[in-house]
User: Fold this.
Amino acid sequence: MILEEIADIKRRRCRSTAEYLLNKFGMLSGLEFTDDKIGIPVLSAVDLPELPSDTLAFSKALYSTETGKLVHFYECDQAFARILHQPRKYMELLKRFRYVSGPDFSQKIGMPEFVRFQNSWWNKALTAYWQSEGIPVIPNVSWSDPDSYEYAFKGLPKHSVIAINCVGVRSCHWSMYLWRKGYEEALRRLEPKLIIRYGDRMPGENEACSVYFENENYKRLRDGR
Assistant:
């Protein structure tokens, strides 16, 4: 019980720190939050009138004119950390593209739990803010271990299009196991109408409700470009 209370205090402090940073830009006014102690931003369900032609990492989108693609954040955190410090600066850029998947600040095993929570909170806060500004942002669903489910799936919409990434998961059997468990939990809780899947097909996933996009780095290596 004491450990749970300590974890809860750390989460509230992380939320306060993140909230202070984002509120400097007036991002949080008007957004909806979960009705609990930690107040996670609530995201809107989205639909796709048509599928994107392909995907494009945020760091490449800065210089691209291929606006029919879906911009994603499935790259190292340093490649897109700027969106947290200057969130308004990149709104017009993102509005040019057909779709955007929500930010994907890491929730890796081995990170302190409060850092994973804070990254999850940031991911949702930026998504909710961009949605409120009219950007077609698809909720990005990410998790670490079963302990993260308490906050990882909160605030996410049911019966929506969602995005899920599996880059780097196949390198370790334990990572594959945790990914699969979280994937099953995401489907159970969110009942998505469509999953935008970035990366390899994973054993046992629901391919019938998924659209797959290949990891761009692997594609370039394979094609020699």
Q: What stands out?
A: Residues 180 and 204 are 8 Å apart (CA to CA).
